[in-house]
Every structure is written in C-alpha cells, then in structure tokens.
C-alpha cells in the first residue's frame, strides 16, 4: 500500500518503574510471556505492512529491542531500529527520524498497543478519504482511559486527563473537534460555546485515542518542521490538524494576526474566533462538509481549501488498550489469558489455562482457569494459582498462593509465600513465608524470609 510504518516503542518509561530497567525496556515487558511489542508487530504482519521503523528511546534500550527483533522476526519483517534521545516525546521522535520517511503515507503506531484492530483497515480508510490524518479511536475503558494511569504518578503537570472530548460529523468519519484531558479542564467554557452553536455535531466522551495514526507524509513533515515546540502527536499535532482544517478566509481575517492554531496559548484567540468557528462548524453536520468548504460558493466569503481529518472507530467487540501504566500491565496480562485470549497466540487446555508441557506440578497443586505457567517452571506441593501468569524457569516451593499476579522469568519463591495483586520481575528471590499484596518487585531483588509488604514498590538501587 506504499505505507511506511513507524512503531514508537518508548524506552524505560518512568511510569513503569520498577517493571522496566536497562535490561528490560518497555517494549520487551512480557504480556502472557511475550514482549508487548510482539502484539503490534504481528498485527502489522497480518495486514501485510512489513516495512517498519521501530523507534526506541535511548541507545541501550534500542540495542535490547533490536537484538530481540532480529532473532524473532528475521525472515518476516523488514525492520530498521532507530535510537532517539529519551523524553523527546512522540512528535520529537518522529522529527528525529524524518529523513528516513519517504513514502506518501506514514502509519504511526504505539509499541505498547495491544489490539486486534487490523492496522490495514486504518490505512485503507485513510486512503479512501484522501485524509491528511486518520486517527484510530476505540471504546474507553469504564474506569477512564488507561493513559490516566493508576500507578500514583506524583507529577500532576504531566499526567494526562481522563477524557477525550471528540466531535464528529453524523457519518462518524470526519474529526471536527478534539480536546484531550488537561485542555478539557482548562477550556470548558469555550468548548461549551462552540458546542452550543453546533447542535448537530456528534460529541463523544466515551472514545480513547488508541495512538495509531495514518498521516500524509508531506503534511506531517511540514507540521513537525514549522511547529518545533510540538512534542506530542496526541496532544499537539492531532488537535492542531483538526483545528486548521476549519481555517477559512473569514476566520483568518477576523483573527487579525493570530488565527487560533498559530497561537501557543490559544485561549484568547479562541474567544475572539469561536463565533466564526461555530459558524463553520454549524455546517459540519451537512454530508458534504469537506466538499462545501473546498470551493468558493456564491454569496459568501471565499473559504480556503480544507484538508480532511478522519477517524476510524474500532468496533466495541474489538480489544484495544495500551500498556502505559502498571495497572494497565496487570489488566492486559489478565485479559490476554482471559477474555481476550484469542490475542495470546496459544492453545488453551480443557481447563482453560496454558501449562507448558515442560512445566512440573507437585501433588495437590492447582492451576486455575485463565492462568499461564511457562516453560521449565516447577511448582512444589499444595500450591494454588489463580488468574495469574508465571514465566519461564521459575522455582516455586510448597504451599505457595499466587492470585491476580504476574511472575516473570527465573523467579525463585520459597515455601509458604502468598502473592496477591502483584508483579514480580525476573530473577527475583522471595524467601520463605513472604507476603506481598499489591506490590511491584523490581528485577533481581531479594525479599527476606517472613517479610510482609502491602502497596510497596521494591527495587534495587540503580548503579
């Protein structure tokens, strides 16, 4: 389809500490004992989108991710791994690799997306509409989008808001208005004025931006070049393109020198222009919105040709979520061996679980439905595992209870331990009778016998 694909695979995200480390960057975090990045790569392969640039933050993380890809996908995909500086943001990451982008259209997808929505369907919709951007939207989880995170981030300024307010035309194909989290709080008054004037625009607060976008390359590069302060595709580039599609001569003239999309703090210019903007938006409910504003029409001011910003809305039956918080990590692991097990790539037993043939279970040990026990792992007698994923080559003693937890590879668990609602990273050692509830234990950590922890994050000091 002449699409180049850019997978933004992140680095060692602060929101996922202590799960991530120099040895295990975000892209390689296990979901059902597979790196999370594999879920995106397999969907791209199924859509025959095989020319990829995987962008990783930090040289060390890029080496880890590149090493894994070259082993797992050597004959299947054409992948170039590009390292970019940490914390450049999604727009900054694309800026860093802009010279590699040559195709007419670019599909950008987050490496932490776990979904069964075919990327090819988003690409096809983009081509069909000849859009400058097509954003994939999916149903927001009941608890609010996972990007609000529940890992207790202390930095309020960076924490995205819980809702996207999205305005679409009645055919649900064109994006007419979008505001993300913090903006919703800040600009509610303006937004109400616009919405009041646009009775027929469909406004949704139940959709999540899945961070899969198709862009017309020429427009994307122009925006990245001209707007060098833009850091985020979701919070800067997409809203900017949606606003600027409504640009008309009326709007430009009435705004004196500052049309809304040119002004960094657009609150004032939005107040000046919202009546004019509303007048344009009021016509957005007409089926021919984009055709109407693509040409001059008699009896009114000439309107500059608009570009099209489109939406691809995933079906409610699709699974679609991002691994961008510790809570999301646990939820996705539970889902992929549970209700969304079609994504796992594994065959489930008659007991609705996955126990590797090489795993060993002691007497009176039970592994319940929606559980996974990895290759070479051994469990002692009278153990109980419920709704949990256990990785490869773990050594688990007797009388151990594991509930709603993820245990990664090469973990040693002593007799009589109880692990509930927790993540135990690779190479951890839990000595006898350790009790963990709602904890995260970083790689290589040793928990002494008899210790009890609740709601703690335990990790070795980085050297």
TrEMBL record:
Pfam families reported in the protein's UniProt record: LbH_EIF2B, NTP_transferase
Chain intervals for the UniProt region annotation (Disordered): 142-163
Keyword Repeat applies: no
GO biological process: cytoplasmic translational initiation
SUPFAM superfamilies: Nucleotide-diphospho-sugar transferases (SSF53448)
GO cellular component terms, A-Z: cytosol; eukaryotic translation initiation factor 2B complex
UniProt superkingdom: Eukaryota
Chief place of localization: cytoplasm
A GO term, aspect molecular function: translation initiation factor activity
Domain Nucleotidyl transferase: 5-147
Subunit structure: Component of the translation initiation factor 2B (eIF2B) complex which is a heterodecamer of two sets of five different subunits: alpha, beta, gamma, delta and epsilon. Subunits alpha, beta and delta comprise a regulatory subcomplex and subunits epsilon and gamma comprise a catalytic subcomplex. Within the complex, the hexameric regulatory complex resides at the center, with the two heterodimeric catalytic subcomplexes bound on opposite sides.
Family: Belongs to the eIF-2B gamma/epsilon subunits family.
Protein's name in the database: Translation initiation factor eIF2B subunit gamma
Organism, as annotated: Acer saccharum (Sugar maple)
């Amino acid at each position: 389809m002449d699409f180049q694909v850019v997978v933004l695979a992140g680095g060692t995200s602060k929101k996922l500490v202590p799960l991530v480390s120099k040895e295990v960057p975000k892209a390689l975090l296990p979901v059902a004992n597979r790196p999370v990045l594999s879920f995106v790569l397999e969907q791209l392969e199924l859509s025959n989108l095989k020319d990829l640039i995987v962008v990783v933050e930090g040289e060390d993380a890029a080496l880890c991710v590149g090493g894994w890809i070259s082993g797992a996908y050597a004959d299947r995909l054409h992948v170039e791994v590009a390292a970019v500086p940490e914390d450049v943001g999604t727009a900054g990451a694309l800026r860093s690799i802009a010279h590699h982008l040559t195709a007419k259209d670019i599909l950008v997808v987050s490496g932490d997306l776990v979904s069964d929505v075919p990327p090819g369907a988003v690409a096809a919709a983009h081509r069909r509409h000849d859009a400058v951007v097509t954003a994939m939207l999916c149903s927001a989880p009941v608890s609010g989008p996972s990007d609000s995170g529940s890992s207790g981030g202390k930095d309020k300024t960076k924490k995205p808001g819980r809702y996207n307010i999205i305005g679409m035309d009645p055919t649900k194909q064109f994006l007419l208005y979008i505001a993300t989290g913090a903006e919703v709080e800040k600009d509610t008054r303006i937004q109400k004025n616009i919405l009041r004037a646009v009775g027929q625009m469909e406004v949704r607060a139940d959709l999540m931006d899945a961070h899969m976008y198709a862009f017309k390359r020429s427009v994307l590069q122009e925006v990245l070049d001209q707007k060098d302060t833009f850091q985020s595709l979701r919070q800067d580039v997409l809203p900017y393109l949606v606003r600027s599609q409504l640009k008309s001569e009326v709007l430009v003239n009435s705004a004196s020198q500052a049309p809304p999309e040119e002004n960094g703090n657009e609150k004032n210019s939005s107040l000046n222009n919202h009546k004019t903007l509303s007048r344009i938006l009021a016509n957005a409910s007409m089926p021919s919105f984009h055709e109407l504003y693509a040409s001059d029409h008699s009896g009114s001011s000439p309107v500059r040709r608009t570009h099209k910003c489109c939406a691809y809305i995933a079906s409610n039956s699709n699974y679609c979520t991002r691994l961008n918080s510790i809570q999301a990590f646990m939820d996705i692991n539970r889902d992929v061996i549970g209700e969304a097990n079609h994504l796992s790539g594994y065959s489930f037993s008659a007991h609705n679980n996955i126990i590797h043939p090489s795993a060993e279970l002691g007497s009176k040990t039970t592994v319940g439905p929606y559980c996974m026990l990895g290759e070479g792992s051994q469990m002692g007698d009278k153990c109980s595992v419920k709704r949990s994923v256990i990785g490869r080559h773990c050594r688990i003693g007797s009388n151990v209870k594991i509930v709603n937890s993820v245990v990664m590879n090469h973990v040693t668990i002593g007799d009589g331990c109880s692990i509930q609602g927790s993540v135990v990273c690779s190479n951890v050692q839990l000595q006898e009778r350790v009790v963990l509830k709602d904890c995260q234990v970083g790689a290589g950590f040793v928990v002494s016998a008899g210790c009890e922890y609740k709601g703690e994050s335990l990790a070795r000091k980085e050297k």
